[in-house]
Amino acid sequence: MSVTVRFAPSPTGNIHIGNVRTALFNWLFALKHDGKFILRFDDTDGARSKREYAEQIASDLEWLGVRPHRVEYQSKRTEAYDAAVERLKKAGLLYPCYDTPEELERRRRIRLSRRLPPVYGREALKLTEAQRSAFEAEGHKPHWRFLLPNFDVDPFATRRTEIHWDDVVRGPQTVDLASMSDPVLVREDGSYLYTLPSVVDDIDMGVTHVIRGDDHVTNTGAQVALFEALGANAPAFGHHNLLTTTTGEGLSKRSGALSIKALREAGYEPAAVAALAVLIGTSENVAPSASIEVMAETFRPSSSSKSAAKFDPTELDLLNRQIVHQLPFEEVSERLKAAGVNVDDPRAGQFWNVIRANIEKVRQAGDWWPIITDGPARDIVLDGDDLDYARTAFSLLPEGDVDASTWSAWTSAVKEKTGRKGRALFMPLRIALTGRSSGPEIADLLPLLGREGIAARRP
Ligand code: GLU
User: Fold this and answer.
1) Of the residues 19, 72, 198, which should be mutated to test ligand 1's pocket, given the most ligand atoms within 8 Å of the CB?
2) Range of 274's domain?
3) For strand 70-73 and strand 143-146, is the pairing parallel, antiparallel, or unpaired?
């Protein structure tokens, strides 16, 4: 069977690392099964959905290496949903309700006080034609509920009705349709809630696997019934655990800090964000993959744990560093250029190989380039004994070409002449050469500076 998945964000804000988990679970699943990936914007909420969010989401996905085969907008598919509504109405499976939120809340409380499940009691089904007309005459508009198939003949005598599926992530699942309210599919103003358009699209677009967050497990019960009511077979489902902040709060499209846009702007590597988004909260090691294709080969949705996983930004820093330390020059040259590195300089490639082990973000290389090409930073300045010592040491630089062995020859000579060793020996030299107390190995820096560059740094 060919596989088709979809990632269906509502463009009501910037996507965050938790949304990306869903996107990547789908993308890796599609890659692994040589399937198709649809990016579907669930933008039926006209007031909150924004074009610029949709564009940002598409660009964030591209940055992460996700390449949708097809892009769809629910706002352009209203006719298909209208047709499904007609079909459900004809079958007597969609009924108008005039209950106000206050009435619903009052009944919910009563049910709870009687120790009954707080589900909708289908009061609207009892309305006579005359009562409905009266509501309409008073200007009330109905919302529409889907009649769940959780009864034999009498909708007021519900019975346990189990929906089963073998979840791609969680294994065998059961939901009881008698434990939930008939879902509202259409609002008073005629707009659609997510439930119906999602099912209509999944049918029309041939979606074979719906992979999404485990906050949708209950929805799946109702949606399976809806697939059947619309004459279709339900697809396979997978529900992954959600990510929370380190303090356990849910991530939201409004909490900007963990948005992909913010992480991107902060200079994180897409491979670090992707690896963490997928591997956190699974039994796999959180380690970078050579590529997204390699990640897809080893990806096992079922390795996710059942409980929510905490997203810890320090883990992202760690992963990012590991990735940056391995990035080849060719892959970063554009970004180095943007950070102020003259990538046409013959030293640029070697500079990157030396510097990458000491930075966390690619753009930090930009701080080091002038230190190598122009002169030391002024973070620390030598004085007193250290200044005298450094002057002596500089006059002991070995003759000849400066290469990988220069540092060891130089330090031996300095040690012999001054008696200094360890930190007391090298730190003043590091400071004289770079103006900083930490940085790349001095042995590696010297060939980059060259004899002239070193001489020019004599304090
Ligand atoms: N728009 C829905 C959401 O973001 C999609 C859920 C689904 O994948 O079915 O939660």
Assistant:
1) 198
2) 256-324
3) unpaired
